[in-house]
Queue: 2 jobs
Job 1
Amino acid sequence: MSSYIPDPVIKRLPMYYRYLSEKEKENTLFISSTELAQLMGLTASQVRQDVSAFGGEGRQGCGYPVAEMRHHIGKLLGKSKVRTLTVIGMGNLGRALVRYETFSQNSFQIISAFDTNPKKAGIRMGAVTVRLMDELEETMREAPADIAVLTLPASAAQKAAERLYACGVRGFWNYAPVDLHLPQDAAVVSVHLDESLELLGYRLEHNEG
Amino acid sequence: MSSYIPDPVIKRLPMYYRYLSEKEKENTLFISSTELAQLMGLTASQVRQDVSAFGGEGRQGCGYPVAEMRHHIGKLLGKSKVRTLTVIGMGNLGRALVRYETFSQNSFQIISAFDTNPKKAGIRMGAVTVRLMDELEETMREAPADIAVLTLPASAAQKAAERLYACGVRGFWNYAPVDLHLPQDAAVVSVHLDESLELLGYRLEHNEG
DNA sequence: TAGATTGTTAATCGATTAACAATC
DNA sequence: TAGATTGTTAATCGATTAACAATC
């Protein structure tokens, strides 16, 4: 069905979506590759190549229809569906994510949260009540999650991921500083905050001679 | 001094650092490009090119000296210095980051935190006391920060960044869903959590025909 | 029609991979 | 020395940029 889209283009889709959303809010009807490129820090040529790659359509002499293209990208990103999330690990980060409301705006819905610490079990956080990891399988049967958010120690992440995979979870949003090894049909996106900060350290160090 | 290193290589440095740290903990003295490549999901050839690019040195027939190479990369990443951080915006994420202890292990030290909400001012969080944004300039004079962590609404991020830049801050770790525009000598690394999750949505949607 | 801008083909650039001589 | 593995040069691959004909 959907033909091949190069990975660099896919990674830019969310950014396209963001800028098109902004433009739509400003009631802009059409935007040229030149303007979009400038906003996004790309070349106009690259924008035209990207659009062509992800199947967008423009009008010569006029530009790209903002609303239509945003909708098209939204569909590619699977925004038409609601995704259910479960958060594994109620440390500082887990707690913050559970309370983060921006997700719901984007049709991501946190439906459960787990921790291994019995002291945290039963506590209400955001819209969910923390459960013990022992109840994972049972809970996943009753209320399956599309995506697991892994905010637990590196040492526990791989095993938890395997357990979740066995429960049918196929999406993994990984915050633990490890690279997960899961079967091909699992989708993993990692957020390595520590590495991101280290990269900033590098840039800071080497920004002028 | 330091010769040019291609950007893709730089972005891999933190991952090299992570795996070398693990190997060092296991008391591995040398590691071959083949083994390192397998761990990191790269080709051996790429590892050798990377190492050569960032100025690492191996021993033929033997591999790369783990501890030495880790130290070398650490120096490139500026890990020899302690970096001071200020967190701007005490929402869920800001609070989580202030309490996050992994940073200190990596020689990043949070020394102040700000919010525009007077109700939050004066409250102690993690190792710092929240201050009102009004006190930003004064505080930066007394205790300058190398890096500002921007965990505030998109609409406020650009202006806050400019203010911080004017205070002499040159590193920006940006969590707001905007792209910052700052002078050349500022180093910006953005963590777009929403976009990262959207990418996962895409992968989930398109993982098998 | 004239002007603007797309869509696409060709050219360039840079990153990854392959190959192999150098050498520990 | 023989075996293993680096360091580097060459080949390939893919992404970005440039150019321009097609067309709204």
Job 2
Amino acid sequence: MLPRRDCWKFIVPELPEVETVARSLYPHIHGCVFASAELLRAQSLHPLSFSLDLLKDKKIIDVTRRGKLLILNLDARENSDVSMLIFHLRMTGRLFTASANREQGKHTRCKFNLLKESGEPLQLFFDDARTFGQILASNPARLQDWEFWRELGPEPLTLQPEELAPRLKGKRALKTALLDQKVIAGIGNIYADESLFMAGLLPDRPADSLKDSEVEKLLKAVQHILNLSISQCGSSIRDYRDADGNAGSFQNSFSVYGKGGQNCPKCGNILQKTRLGGRATVFCPVCQK
DNA sequence: TCCTCCCTGTTC
DNA sequence: GAACAGGGAGGA
């Protein structure tokens, strides 16, 4: 267990955390039907979203993920119907259920009233302190109007090295390329730093200077780190630790993220901290080339 | 392609 | 009370 003052740092939802949320949410809400939705902050609804009123009577048939987006798949009767409810958690978005008549919190942005198959009510909360998160009710055809969705890069866990190499062409700093959701989906600041450290590649290496063997090494590192984090339920997500005991413990496995000035776990030299593309970046100047 | 802004909780 | 955390939009 981390000291309390450190916990808040490690709750940014990237791919493994969103995957963890999707998996932990599924058993709670699968088969549930929307009774109503209470949007408490209008700006938390994406401009391209259908009205949340259209969710009424829609059944949740699956909970999936695309990049960092969490998706509730709904049983739509027609193609023009709402068939997806998408959440972009961004920095501080939290999605969790409450069976009792839980009061909305200070940061609750939307409350969904669901009915279980048994007829029992269930509440689904979308809380978001920093209000960067967004909700989008849509369907596959309508999603094509959303540039971010249309241009979202491939999923890293199923990507092949020969598919990644051309995507890095013309890109400058390697880390900036990894963070670019058009290049590859789902990687944020934590997993970019961790993957580059594992692959032994400097964050500011020109992305298109990588040899084939280095691209392969990079992708292997990305996949290893993401899979390892998923197996540990991601890095700690406060709301889910209590809800179903999914503690999320990957923050204990960080090699470099948040460790600038400390010793490199491989060679013992001091880890450097810089800023790259406006993001805090930590790397080992000896191990990474 | 790079930088700034959005936003709030927490720390220094 | 300033600095910092950061994903993505938008402007330079």
